[in-house]
Amino acid sequence: MLLNAEASCLLVVDCQEKLMPAIHGGDDLIAQVGWLIDLARALSVPMLASEQYPRGLGRTVGDIDARLDAGEKMEKLRFSCAAEPGCRERCEGLGRRQVVIGGVEAHVCVLQTAVGLLGQGWEVFVVEEAVSSRRLRDRDLALARMRQAGVEVVSREMVAFEWLHEAGTDLFRDVSRRFLR
After folding, report:
1. 79 lies in which domain range?
2. Contact (CB, 8 A) for 68 and 49
3. What tens digit of pLDDT does each residue of 51-87 get?
4. Long-range contacts of 66-71 (CB under 8 A, 24+ apart)
5. Whole-angstrom Cα distance, residue 66 to residue 63?
6. How high is the pLDDT of residue 161?
7. pLDDT attached to residue 181
């Protein structure tokens, strides 16, 4: 199955202030998630970002938070966005059936969200370079488990080219110049 920009949304999971310093490759992950947000914005793909218990883990980190509108953020207590009623309703309210996911931790909130959404009938795509955990082994195990469950593990360029669908357009030239160098 291929991604379609008109059927997709982006879900950023729990990239929060107190958690990110402990994440393996955290600075690079922030850059990758920021790239995805900017790409989604350029292609009019709607997005949401979750915050797991922000009173304890802090708010979304500055570089990502600066790219989001206030209405695109949602709080949760359950690890899975799919299991949190308010988050699930917000995702469903976007009217899309494909979800592209980046964030942390891969083996906890990302895994539970991806598998949960898959079980609710979503087409789920996790961006490999845009997810991580405190320990690399946990990230790798989570990616393997998600693949086994039927989640599509993709690269950011796969997302970009599938959302673009064709070359030779003004949009392709703009996105290519800004994102695909």
Report:
1. 5-179
2. yes
3. 999 999 999 999 999 999 999 999 999 999 999 999 9
4. 67/34, 67/37, 67/38, 67/41, 68/12, 68/37
5. 6
6. 96
7. 77
Q: 52 φ, ψ to 5°?
A: -80, 115
CATH value at residue 171: 3.40.50.850
Q: CA nearest 81: which of 11, 148, 5?
A: 11
pTM for this predicted structure: 0.97
Other CB atoms within 10 A of residue 29 CB: 24
Question: Residue 147's CB: how many other CB atoms inside 10 A?
Answer: 12
Q: What CA dihedral angle connects 146, 112, 56 and 50, to 10 degrees?
A: 90
Look up residue 91 and give its two tokens. 């995702």
- Tens digits of residue pLDDT in 117-174: 999 999 999 999 999 999 999 999 999 999 999 999 999 999 999 999 999 999 899 9
Do the beta carbons of residue 62 and residue 54 sit within 8 Å?
no
pLDDT greater than 90 at residue 104: yes
The total domain count for the chain is: 1
HSE (CB half, 13 Å, CA atoms) of 111?
18
Tokens matching residue 144:
């393997």
Q: By the 8 A CB rule, do 125 and 154 touch?
A: yes
How confident is the model at residue 180, as a pLDDT?
86
